[in-house]
FAD-binding protein
Amino acid sequence: MMSAHERNWAGNLTYSSVRIHRPTTVAEVQEIVRSSSKLRALGSRHSFNTIADTPEDLVSLEGLSRIVALDRERGTVTVEAGIKYGHLGTYLHGEGFALHNLASLPHISVAGACATATHGSGDRNGNLATAVTALEFVAADGELVRLSREADGDAFLGAVVHLGALGVITQMTLAIEPTYTVQQDVYVDLPVAQLEANYEAIESDAYSVSLFTNWQGDAVGEIWLKRRLPDGVARAMAPEFFGAMLAANALHPIPALSAANCTVQGGEPGPWHERLPHFRMDFTPSSGDEIQTEYFVPRPHAVAAMRAITAIRDQLAPVLMISEVRTLAADELWMSPCYRQECVALHFTWHPNAAAVQAVLPTLEAQLAPFEPRPHWGKVFAMPAAQVQARYPRLGDFRALVQQYDPAGKFRNAFIDTYIFG
């Protein structure tokens, strides 16, 4: 244990907690939980808002990062909560296995990513939490609780995207599949007119697709296409893709930055865990000096939502670094932004000017309001709590689940009180 105050990955938030505990065993977690009156858990600190903060005790899961078991017959891997996807991916590939998807950063922890429904991309790919088949957590009384998809059904679906409100996650079991090869190609300057006319075809052209834009001009800056290769053999790419041109060199999502710490492009095949993320595990992708926002809207509204954003591009320009547009499959997880709806995820990476970001968010959210957006739980947004709550049909059931395992509100903080119980 050491005293705070420490900061999140981006540096835009200083935690208010007076103590940060760093357990290395489940027994230590249980003792910390029993002795605390208010507690929140920390993963890789990649949240940009106060979802993980509390004035009293924080528990870092960094010391719980081991592989627990690989079950080849059942097709699962069980890991401790603090393991990072990059390390898990290297292990799984070495054993001949893979996950269905990865986020743009392999540096994030499994427990933190699943708790907030963090995601990758792909028409048929659910967010990272959809791979969870079982989880173990320390509830408010210090006892271990185990829930699984097979045994606990509906309650399990409510517990996976838990926002840190059920307890401290100690282990998770994830579905795995045979390892696979991916090639990554980048095209530049996709005409907006082509994007709008062919959106579905563009997004479904590869296993994972990301569009990067600053909403300026008549073209989308970059399209990153990640293709699964069943035979491991690279596919020759056409020089043109819906009017976009195949990039001659490796690119960073922000064109002015070096691509040295990005994953390999140019159609060179490689293992899934070294292509699905945008950034390499052995490099820090940036100083973290940024703020992030993201909204999920139903897939049928994708083009209309992008037009609505383009209409305010002049207001976004002074504070925006880059935006990313991705698609996601629907899922059954109660508190997932993609609960029972296919989504387009509209992501904004802002310059580290909190006041300027907060000033522009209401305008951005007003533009997206007709499409009933759901904000990313771990990123900055300005939507009133009532609007957020209205987007989640199972919110009442989730409240009851939280109260079942934490009747006195030990794991509740200002964020949970506002957006879940407010």
In short: DSSP finds twelve helices and 21 strands in the chain.
